[in-house]
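Below: protein 1.
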Amino acid sequence: MEDRTIVKVVDNFNIPREVIFFNADQVHKCSCMLFESIGIPCRYIIRMLRSARISELSMHYITKRWTKNCKREAAFDSEGNLLIEKSITSMEDSTRRKMATAHKKFEDIFQMAKTFEEGVDILIQNLERLSLLFEPISRTR
């Protein structure tokens, strides 16, 4: 059995909650299951962290949805279908996947380029050159 600490916490509503602290992983688990269900640490876990004088959350609690790169990747359902927000056009799924890949690649390049001023200049110059490749295509449509 893991090295763990179990604490019962009662709030103002007199609902007892059981918070388990796994020492090896430095992770708390609460019987309210808020973190497991929606990815937000509950007040009971936060109370335990405060009482232990821990001022920073473990990386375990920083799920992808809370990072600045959360929307950089396309989302797919369990069957591999691309999930999109209210589609306006009737684009093929393969085209949507390619667009999502291109968007992610551009975002990666942008994140690298913005770290120094010359990088942004290089990015702009190359985007202008790249846009010239697509001008004849867009004019013929």
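Below: protein 2.
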Amino acid sequence: MEKETARIEAFSDGVFAIAITLLILEIQIPGPSGNLGSQLIKEWPFYVAFLISFAFIGIMWINHHRLFTHIKRSDNTLMILNLLLLLGVTSVPFPTVVLAQHLGHPDQAVAARVYNGTYFVIAIFFNVLWWYVNRAHLL
């Protein structure tokens, strides 16, 4: 018998996979100018932001996977709360680019707040999801 949450998990896995893949699209490939090394080094903020966001999305996926191994059944509220979490996950590429573009510039503090704020909202969504699953006896 298939687990009742299998479709939710499959959809969520797809969203996580797409979000983590979209992160790499902002890393620009330098054109042939004879100074490839220095051009690659100039892109360091994008590498750092990519690696941090990749790790964070990976950790979120692991936590999501572990949570859903305990959930026995689903309901509409669970699906809505899960969609809110996935909304946060799909937004991660945007603050990642904002952070990368502004590291080392005067607005880097604002960029860091946008980036951190995104993860704060995602953490709220995840905790509300966990709280609901416990309260609704879906475990």
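Residues 108-135 form the longest helix (28 residues).
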